[in-house]
Amino acid sequence: MFWQVSEVVRIMGGERVLGRRVRVMDDLRRAVESGLPVEALAEVTRHVGEPGLRYRVVPKATLHRRKQRLSPDESARLERMARTTALAEYVWEDQDLARRFLLGRQTGLGGERPIDLARSELGARQVEELLLKLEYSLPV
Q1: Would you say 85 and 44 are in contact if contact means Cβ atoms under 8 Å apart?
Q2: In this predicted model, what pLDDT tens digit does every residue of 34-65 receive, in sequence order?
Q3: Rounded distance, CA 39 to CA 31, Å?
Q4: Angle at 82 between CA 118 and CA 105, to 5 degrees
Q5: 49 part of a folded domain
Q6: Domains: count for the chain
Q7: Burial level of 53, CB count in 10 A (0-12/13-18/19+)?
Q8: Contact (CB, 8 A) for 73 and 64
Q9: N or C, where is the chain less crowded by C-beta within 10 Å?
Q10: Residue 55 belongs to what domain range?
C-alpha cells in the first residue's frame, strides 16, 4: 500500500484520540467497526482544513447528539477521508498541495472535489485511482 495505517491514524489524531493502539489494518478495521471517537472527526476536519467536512460525515443534527462515538458507518466514512488524505499527502509530498488537491474541483474526477467523493467507497476508489495515475505519470 502507498499509504500506511500509521498515516491514517496520525490524521485521525493518533492513539491519544483513538484510545487504542492501531498498528495494522486489522486494528484499524476493528476500531472503525466499534465506532471511532467523535474527536477523530474534529482531528480530520482540522487536518484537511475544511470546517464543513464534519457534516459530510455526520449530519449536523445528528452530530450534536453524538457524545462519544461515531456509528460504524460514520466511522467508515471518516476512515475513507483520512485514507484519501494520507494517499494525497504521499503523492504530493506536501500537506498544503495535498489539501489543495482534496478541496479543489478536479477535471479528472468530472469536476468533483476529491474530499466529497471520498464519502463513498466507490468515490474514494476513483480518487485513489487518479492519485496513483498522477504518481506514476500516467494519462488521466
Answers
A1: yes
A2: 999 999 999 999 999 998 988 888 888 787 77
A3: 14
A4: 40
A5: yes
A6: 1
A7: buried
A8: no
A9: N
A10: 5-135
Domain presence at residue 40:
yes
Q: Structure pTM?
A: 0.92
Beta bridge partners of 106: 112
Helix (H, G, I), strand (E, B) or coil at 50: coil
Place of cell 509530498: 93
Q: Is 112 helix (H, G, I), strand (E, B) or coil?
A: strand
Kindly state whether residue 140 falls inside one of the protein's structural domains: no
**Kind and range of the H or E element at 11?**
helix 5-11
Q: Which position has the grid cell 487518479? A: 130
Cβ contact 53:44 at 8 Å: yes
The Cα–Cα gap between 75 and 69 comes to 9
Contacts of residue 73, Cβ cutoff 8 Å, sequence gap at least 6: none
What is the rounded distance in angstroms from the CA atom of residue 40 to the CA atom of residue 38?
Answer: 5
* CA dist 76 → 35, 91, 97, 98 (Å): 9, 22, 25, 21
Q: What percent of the chain has pLDDT over 70?
A: 97
Instruction: Quote the cell numbers at residue 41.
Output: 472527526
